[in-house]
């Protein structure tokens, strides 16, 4: 990619990261959707998932890490940053694996990402609390992670389809 292409990619990555951060912040303002604590829609993952399909793994990882770190530092604390990193990185790894295997579409990859985000956060809670008792909450998080992953996957799929036409200048798998 030449200098202009690189500058465009940096600008797009920054735009996607800011979009994800804004959604993360707005999600914190939404009252709980269920009586189950910790269940959130995870809509910030729309930007990461779309970037994964549009720009490739390297740029999507950059966007994901930027969102997690800046959102955690600006709006959270070290504990929430730790939980977000554990969930976000495990989720991202699983989504990349499934994308490489080409066994699911955007919605399936996103649903798995939602579940693995919750698994990563349960692992973080196990370490933080020094107890595996939190895994009793896994069935609730399995259902919520799947449902919210499907929702974000549908939205990301629509966004990817729309942006593929707009971003024709991007080489495949940038």
Walk me through what this model shows:
- The chain has 174 residues and is mainly alpha-helical.
- It has a single domain, classed as Arp2/3 complex 21 kDa subunit ARPC3, CATH 1.10.1760.
- The chain contains six helices and no strands.
- The model has no long low-confidence stretch (mean pLDDT 91).
Features:
mainly alpha; Arp2/3 complex 21 kDa subunit ARPC3; 174 residues; single chain
Distance, first to last CA: 9 Å
CATH architecture: Orthogonal Bundle
Q: Which structural class fits the helix and strand makeup?
A: mainly alpha
CATH class: Mainly Alpha
Q: How many beta-strand elements?
A: 0
Q: How many helices?
A: 6
Major sheet attributes: none
- The Cα radius of gyration reads 16 Å
Which percent range fits the helix content? over 70%
Q: In CATH terms, what is the fold-level topology?
A: Arp2/3 complex 21 kDa subunit ARPC3
> Per the principal axes of the C-alpha atoms, what is the gross shape?
globular
- Portion in beta strands: under 5%
Overall pLDDT confidence: 91
Low-pLDDT segments, ≥5 res: none
Domain tally: 1
Order of helices and strands: HHHHHH
Short description:
This protein has helices spanning 3-29, 45-55, 57-75, 78-101, 106-129, 138-166. The protein has 174 residues and is mainly α.
Secondary structure blueprint with pairings:
Elements: H1 3-29, H2 45-55, H3 57-75, H4 78-101, H5 106-129, H6 138-166
Helix pairs in contact: 1-2, 1-3, 2-3, 2-6, 3-4, 4-5, 5-6
